Amino acid sequence: MCDLMLNLDYEIFEVWVAYNDDAIDDIFRQTIEQLSGKITPILINNLVRELNLKEDIKAYLKLSKLIKKVKPDIVHCHSSKAGVLGRIATKRRRVNKIFYTPHAYSFLSTEFSKRKKYLFIRIEKFLSRNATTKTFNVSNSEKYSALKYNIDNDKKLKVIYNGLVSQTKENILNKQDNLRKKLKIKDSSYIIGNMARVESQKNPQLFNNIAHKAYSDRKDIAFIWIGDGSLKNKVQQNSSDNTYFLNFSEKNSNYLSEFDGYISTSDYEGLPYSPLEALQEGIPVLLSDVVGHDEIVEDGVNGKLYNPDNILVNIQELYDFIDWSKTSDKQAIKKSVTDKFSIDNMILEISSEYLV
Q1: How many domains in the chain?
Q2: Per residue of the chain (356 residues), what is the pLDDT tens digit?
Q3: Model pTM?
Q4: Can you give the three-state secondary structure of the chain, one letter per residue?
Q5: Per the database record, which ranges form the Glycosyl transferase family domain (predicted)?
Q6: Contact of 181 with 197, CB cutoff 8 Å
Q7: Residues 333, 346 share a domain
Q8: 186 & 317 share domain
Q9: Are 145 and 198 within one domain?
């Protein structure tokens, strides 16, 4: 969403952004500050991630009031909760164009019961058919999931990949912090890490379990997780000596460039940015074989997929990945994302849909 805000043409679009300040990261805050005077930020701190009837009703009423005041031509809702409340409020106010980017459908989550998943599917189906002009899926596999569960017809679903901003000399110069020195990691150790929210969707417990298993076999692998979230304290308390957790900040996000390999343990995804950013740096990726990851990995070129149900039994997969990554072609890895995940393409496609 930050990339979308930073790259829209403000000679064409007047942008209002409704968000919960408690639910955003430093980069989002910096983006809001950077665009001061170009966008109108609106704080709605009742927009919470968890199901909370009292807060959800308050958020809905505030969104409805905002839409009545602004009278927008277009409303673009992002993620499940805002997607539900935002689309209902927008439809009630008779806005002509309502777009939705789920960034991974909630019904794909393994944390919910079958009954809840069924409810989420019914809600997504109803809103897509009655309160959505078009859904932007960030991957083909996410779109396939929508079609599989009959959320809507093919014409109402469009794949628009997340786009990466091209690296500049300034970007590169800002990434000179020494991660090994900060964490006192030996030069001979292999650093494999992740950058994501520490939430159940990202399965941080599996990350911990993999690190534990590896530590029992060898002491030359360091596991790093950059990010914040509701599960962070619990996961951090149960981590082994080879595992490090860093808060998310612009400075700490720069440490991604110093990883030797990138690992994701997610249960499901839309199309995550962090693995793409790792590949842009020439860092090979080891990703769980789930929705959203399968379109990132070119096996043997930029990384490997693994079965998250078997990785602890087949920990050799991790060691094989590490051995392979040491001889991988960094330029080939970078090239694998340069054209496919272009910020220019993303902005062009979204803007074109806005203006139809």
Answers
A1: 2
A2: 999 999 999 999 999 999 999 888 888 999 999 999 999 999 999 998 888 999 999 999 999 999 999 999 999 999 999 999 999 999 999 999 999 999 999 999 888 899 999 999 999 999 999 999 999 999 999 999 999 999 999 999 999 999 998 765 445 545 455 899 999 999 999 999 999 999 999 999 999 999 999 999 999 999 999 999 999 999 999 999 999 999 998 889 999 999 999 999 999 999 999 999 999 999 999 999 999 999 999 999 999 999 999 999 999 999 999 999 999 999 999 999 988 999 999 999 999 999 99
A3: 0.90
A4: CHHHHHHCCCCCCCEEEEECHHHCCHHHHHHHHHCECCEEEEECCCCCCCCCHHHHHHHHHHHHHHHHHHCCCEEEEECHHHHHHHHHHHHHCCCCEEEEECCCCHHHCCCCCHHHHHHHHHHHHHHHHHCCCEEEECCHHHHHHHHHCCCCCHHHEEECCCCECCCCHHHHHCCCCCHHHHHCCCCCCEEEEEECCCCHHHCHHHHHHHHHHHHHHCCCEEEEEECCCCCHHHHHHCCCCCEEEECCCHHHHHHHHHCCEEEECCCCCCCCHHHHHHHHCCCCEEEECCCCCCCCCCECCCEEEECCCCCCCCCHHHHHHHHHHCCCCHHHHHHHHHCCCEHHHHHHHHHHHHHC
A5: 176-311
A6: no
A7: no
A8: yes
A9: no
Q: How many C-beta atoms surround the C-beta of residue 231 within 10 A?
A: 16
- Pair 154, 226 in one domain: no
209 and 129 share one domain: no
CA distance 134 to 175: 38
Contact 28, 41 (CB under 8 A): no
- Structural domain that includes position 108: 2-163+341-355
One domain, residues 313 and 252: yes
Domain of 197, CATH number, reads 3.40.50.2000
